């Protein structure tokens, strides 16, 4: 199997089923989950330098405000709807930022033709199920989201300002 085929298999056999189990909907490499006033959003971004032999990718993780979604029905978030985002490495503790599938100068994770799919999935599972998803699932209100993204500078400020704008809009329309 080539690295690209391995990535497709990992997405098909682990990532999509796991995120579906966690309540996420999917379209392509995007996953979203409604939490009422906002959506959790995960995007798998592949490197533009990928080849069939080497595939690197990361996760863009964020929240989209329901009132600001481009979807008129307000049922689907897209990457362009995100009001605050981080990459998975921003959520990982220091001891998980680097391991055999996460090293310097890569975009997040790296799969090669020599990558063991079972071992790679085990490492991804640790990052996703033990660290990233629990942090995301703890976001139950807009206040939780603002507090969560506040340490990330611009994104925390941006989210706070967009939430404040919505409150003002709601007061004016009431």
What brief labels describe this structure?
alpha+beta; 22% strand; 174 residues; 6-stranded antiparallel sheet; DUF4304 domain-containing protein
Topology, element by element:
Blueprint: H1 3-21, E1 25-27, E2 30-34, E3 38-46, E4 54-65, E5 82-87, H2 88-91, H3 94-97, E6 109-112, H4 117-137, H5 142-149, H6 154-173
Antiparallel strand pairs: 1-2, 2-3, 3-4, 4-5, 4-6
Protein name: DUF4304 domain-containing protein
InterPro entries: DUF4304
Pfam families: DUF4304 (PF14137)
Verbal overview:
There is one protein chain. With 174 residues, this protein is α+β, with helices and mostly antiparallel strands. It has one domain (3-173). It has six helices and six strands. Strands 1, 2, 3, 4, 5 and 6 form a six-stranded antiparallel beta sheet that branches. A hairpin with a 3-residue loop joins strand 2 (30-34) and strand 3 (38-46).
Question: How many strands, what sense, and barrel or not for the largest sheet?
Answer: 6 strands, antiparallel
Number of strands: 6
End-to-end C-alpha gap: 59 Å
* Low-confidence sequence ranges: none
Q: What does the overall shape look like?
A: elongated
Radius of gyration: 17 Å
Mean pLDDT: 93
Content of β-strand: 15-25%
> Which structural class best describes the helix and strand composition?
alpha+beta
Portion of residues in helices? 40-55%
Total domain count: 1
Tally the helices: 6
